[in-house]
Amino acid sequence: MLEEKGVLFNLLRFLHKGLSLNRTRRLLRMRKDTFSILLKQAVELEVLIKKNGRYILSRKGEKFIRKNKPNLFRCNCNIGFKISKEILLKAKEYCKLRVVPNIEIDQCPTKPKDLAQRIAFMYENGDLNNKRILCIGDNDFASLLMFEIAKPKEVVVIDIDERVLDIIKKISEKQKWAIKTKKFDIRKFSQINYPKELKERFDVFQTDPPYTEVGFKYYIALGMVALKRKGTCYIVAPHMNLENWSDELLYEIEKFLLEYGFFITDIFPSFQTFLDKYGIISSIIRAERTNLIKEPFSALKQLNIDKFYTIR
């Protein structure tokens, strides 16, 4: 199965190029436990040797690599953007202010470098300066880093956690940044219950929802209602090899976007990692809205709200 999926070849290819185990795992889009199983199987197949805690290619592994001509492929080992030291330091500074994650509402902090990379991606696409931006959930403080990099016209943060909102409000007021905060339980979002002042107001929304189909659709639906025609969205979504649930979830997200008038411009794999024990790896999706305005409320009625969070 590993050879059919190309996973074994890529494992050996990345290690052959001198990448660390962490970098290799990220490029393979694998959780820590799945990656450990892969390494064990590679040792059993005698293509890797474990020596002093390190994994090196055996003669059989070297032969396997040469046979498959790895130089015909360009190893995309430089995914992402070059982040300045100043911005990375700011990202680390804000990350230190984060609240203790509440796993019951699926709070899972991203790594500082990956947070900076996400904001840099938005900046490079012209989606920060002079834009009205909606952050749907922001326990990573992406809204604060946006103002360190660019000059948005306005940022509104919606979150269920008052601790998160209080910190953002305190810092933004001190810095005189145009950030507004609003507490809202997205599980209660419906055609008759949502912040009406948000409707078709924003140029951009960004979100990293709970990793369930219900959670994603509710978060994205709120963004859809808030976004202007020709607006843009950034969505962080899990995407890992050998894990059918992440493939199926990514399929549902893309289908939902297409059905409601969006077209996908970019999907970057292995874009974001988290400070969690499982080693979840996520892609980032960038999509733009067409002139079609189709409200998603009917789709939400078909979902089981009890499956909103991963912990039920």
Automatic annotation (TrEMBL):
N(4)-bis(aminopropyl)spermidine synthase C-terminal domain boundaries: 86-283
Signal sequence interval, chain numbering: none
Keyword terms, alphabetized: Methyltransferase, Transferase
Protein name: Putative methyltransferase
BP term (GO), one: methylation
SUPFAM superfamilies per record: S-adenosyl-L-methionine-dependent methyltransferases (SSF53335)
Keyword Membrane recorded: no
GO molecular function, one term: methyltransferase activity
Any matching Pfam family: BpsA_C
